[in-house]
Specification:
The complex is a heterotetramer, with 1 copy of chain A (196 residues), 1 copy of chain B (189 residues) and 2 copies of chain C (224 residues). With 196 residues, chain A is mainly α. Chain A is built from 9 helices and no strands. Chains C and D meet through helix 5, helix 6 and helix 7 of C and helix 6 and helix 7 of D. Bound molecules: adenosine-5'-triphosphate (2 copies), biotin (BTN) and magnesium ion (MG) (2 copies).
């Protein structure tokens, strides 16, 4: 899980700095919203698809990225067809698909740690407003570190309740989870303070 | 902001991720998940208060955006931020803000009923107020159609989640309050 | 009472226990072994919290895979980390929880809770917040919480790690006095002196099975 | 080195420690006593994690209330539960965290981290995920993480509770080898044999203060 969704590779897209990719995505996203000609939008969609092999990713991968959104894309297409016309139905559906593909592409070709570094640098100018980039990246690391720990806490609590004969009740899970989380927060804060 | 605040913010971002591990319920036809994560803004706001709650939600969204698969169903990256249902996610931030603000404002009188009302106002009211217009804009549907097509099916589930969250908020207020007075235990340098 | 028939267990793709055949009928059974040797996993098999990947576990003739609930009602479990099993924010509520199935009235409930607390050396702790207790105090609450339901078998996973001498003795005296069968996992070898039988685990296998003195000797030579 | 002058401590409205006057200058100091007697609270006073309600705690002449940060840089603390003091997802990052104040360059940082790991018997563990380590490994990482900053005093709160014989020996050997002053809270009386001085607490007071054998005797008779 901690590797994230990144697909290791050595393509030009992989090697591009994370900041450049994010800027590119923002520009492409703006463009997609501005374009209102279905043919231009089709070109954008094809272009997004073409970037996948360029990044060493298969067409199947592109499809995998779109799959969760397919039902809603289809639904929207039909709704537009019914409410408006075929051209705007195609335009909106292709726009969404292109946006999703481009966003996935950035995610697939950029390491989590590179994005975090970029974020830390981008936050630098906010220093004078009291934002400390080092604290932000500490918070990120802590959260990543806590996810498996909380997963363990959760399964421990479930197990203990099962052992004590408690039926699965969401509240009986939520309360100990939150109380233990808060206690953990106290102890971890103490440890950080002791170590820094 | 103290170290403890920082840790709390990180921990609740992680709680949000853990809520995402519960398998999402995909309603037939619409592809927006019914997810335990919509409880997140309620817990963050109602337990941490406005400032820490909002920062915690933002931190969670940053983790998603940088590519960790923490949304229900193991989704992540930037795609969830540009989809037709992404408005709900942005709504979570504002919901944590409102719920946190209300909780702090009425802390001394906070009980099961008021906590529930706050959770509904933020977790349903605010979330839908952002999510539905976004959905309408992205899909080209009218507001009403968008509401019928996206939000209505979630209301029963979200009411249940508000019940659970508000009960947790009240119990935590009683046993481990983080808002209002300082912490129990001795002073800390 | 407890029977394991050709039991193997895999967790997360790794073999954690391999082909155990055991019949446990003694009243006091100890379980020792290195970190990661499979003791806690073994303990969890006994009340159906984990199910064997192969083979069958029977308790009072009930298959844990088929009758998990019925087995758990008769087998109490105390976890290594007391925080995991304390469900409620106050000590009193937590103990009362174990009595829920009995549907007692308020007065009787309160009476039993305060009796159990007194027995654990925690008289008057009803309204203390569980997360503000010291480590040892929490462990005693966890023990009292399981004991209050009077299960027929008690499985204890390192129940004394955080305890001082007095509480350790109190727990051991309490365990001694119990009519029930006790299966106890521990790293504290002193606790095993009065036991009837001790199992020594080593990387998922039973390395020794016999009386305490010999078992401790076997364990020490494994660790050398 | 460590001085407590008329120190009392209240937590949650309850008196937890009362009027302690102590001067600790020995290299190996043990702290024992009943559950809830105030050992962990005492340990937290030594690096300013808790501040006395009355009196003063001085470490190297620094008042913990006034110079908490400076004190903490010189006093390392190892908590009972290693899970809660490992801050980063990987072992390498976690150790590097302790070196942050030194602002070293990448190469030097990596060199010191791998040296500290080798010292702890964890060579090559840099990229291991902390939550996937065994209990003993995690305890060693926690120790290494605190030790890497080379604090002059190390305070350890029950650092061996979940460990088996072999791991306990490893941790104790590591502690033995440290040059620094060590203050260790423990319920495991066997660990105290080489110590210079042992404090025995009883309900927030110092009940005994002297060499290990006598202290253990005093503690045993308190518990009888
Ligand atoms: N949930 C899990 N998923 C995968 N592997 C696990 C899981 N829990 C335990 N294991 C592995 O199974 C093995 C046995 O673990 P177990 O907890 O039974 O050991 P143990 O003898 O109780 O150790 P200890 O003395 O440290 O408590 C270990 O190697 C451990 O890493
Ligand atoms: N955060 C807290 N708030 C209020 N009371 C507390 C808190 N932490 C500890 N106490 C109380 O202070 C007393 C001393 O606790 P402390 O943790 O110092 O004991 P200890 O000697 O370390 O015990 P153990 O051997 O069980 O670890 C106990 O009675 C405990 O209930
Ligand atoms: O996982 C995502 O991509 C975001 C999904 C947003 C789901 C919304 S939040 C409010 C409403 N209640 C639910 O259970 N789901 C929707
Ligand atoms: Mg174990
Ligand atoms: Mg303690």
């Amino acid at each position: 899980m901690m590797g994230g969704l990144y697909r290791p590779g050595d393509s030009r897209l992989h090697r591009l700095p994370a900041g450049a990719k994010l800027l590119f995505l923002a520009a492409a996203g703006t463009l997609a919203v501005l374009v209102s000609n279905p043919f231009a939008m089709a070109a954008l969609l094809v272009g997004s698809l073409a970037l996948f092999p360029f990044a060493g990713l298969s067409a199947a991968e592109a499809f995998r990225q779109l799959r969760p959104a397919l039902p809603i894309l289809l639904l929207l297409f039909l709704a537009q067809l019914w409410l408006a016309d075929a051209a705007s139905a195609a335009l909106i559906t292709m726009r969404l698909a292109a946006l999703l593909l481009l966003a996935s592409l950035v995610t697939l070709t950029t390491r989590v740690s590179d994005t975090v570094d970029t974020l830390e640098r981008a936050l630098g100018p906010l220093r004078r407003f009291g934002v400390d980039p080092a604290r932000v990246s500490l918070a990120i690391s802590l959260a990543i570190r806590f996810i498996p720990a909380l997963g363990t806490v959760l399964s421990d609590i479930r197990e203990a309740q099962e052992a004590r004969g408690l039926d699965r009740h969401p509240l009986a899970l939520a309360v100990p989870l939150v109380v233990r989380t808060l206690k953990m927060a106290d102890e971890v804060a103490e440890a950080i303070e002791a170590r820094s | 902001m103290s170290t403890r605040d920082l840790v709390l913010i990180a921990l609740f971002a992680a709680v949000m991720a853990v809520l995402g591990a519960f398998p999402p319920l995909m309603l037939p036809i619409i592809a927006i998940p019914v997810t335990a994560q919509s409880m997140g803004p309620m817990l963050m706001g109602g337990i941490l208060g406005a400032k820490r709650g909002v920062l915690s939600m933002l931190l969670f969204l940053v983790l998603v955006a940088v590519g960790l698969p923490l949304l229900s169903g193991g989704r992540g990256g930037l795609a969830p931020f540009v989809g037709p249902w992404s408005g709900f996610i942005y709504g979570w931030v504002l919901a944590a803000l409102l719920i946190g603000w209300l909780t702090e404002r009425f802390w001394d009188r906070l009980g099961p009923v008021s906590a529930f009302a706050f959770c509904v106002a933020g977790g349903i009211g605010v979330v839908y107020a952002v999510g539905v217009p976004w959905f309408a804009a992205m899909s080209g549907l009218g507001l009403l159609e968008a509401f019928a097509g996206s939000a209505m099916a979630f209301i029963p589930g979200d009411l249940v989640k508000a019940t659970v969250a508000s009960a947790a908020i009240v119990i935590v207020k009683r046993s481990y309050p983080l808002i209002g007075q300082g912490r129990t235990g001795a002073a800390r340098a | 009472m407890i029977e394991l028939l050709g039991v193997s267990l895999a967790r997360g793709g790794r073999d954690v226990l391999s082909r155990l055949d055991l019949r446990l009928a003694e009243r006091r059974i100890g379980v020792i072994g290195a970190n990661g040797s499979g003791k806690s996993s073994f303990a969890r098999l006994l009340n159906g919290l984990l199910l064997p990947t192969e083979g069958t576990v029977r308790v009072f003739g009930l298959d844990t895979a088929a009758d998990g609930r019925a087995v758990r009602r008769r087998v109490g479990f105390v976890f290594q980390n007391p925080d995991n099993q304390i469900v409620y924010p106050t000590v009193g509520e937590d103990l009362a929880f174990g009595l829920k199935p009995l549907k007692l009235d308020r007065g009787e409930l309160a009476r039993r809770v305060s009796f159990a607390l007194a027995e654990a050396g925690l008289a008057g702790f009803e309204n203390r917040l569980t997360h503000e207790l010291s480590g040892g105090e929490r462990q005693m609450v966890a023990l009292a919480g399981v004991g209050i339901a009077r299960p027929e078998i008690l499985v204890l996973d390192e129940p004394t790690t955080l305890l001082d001498l007095r509480n350790k003795r109190r727990v051991m005296a309490r365990i001694d006095a119990l009519q029930q069968t006790v299966v106890m996992v521990t790293h504290d070898l002193d606790l095993l002196s009065g036991f009837d039988r001790v199992l020594v685990f080593e990387t998922g296998r039973l390395a020794f099975d016999g009386p305490p003195a010999e078992a401790i000797g076997a364990y020490r030579s494994l660790c050398a």
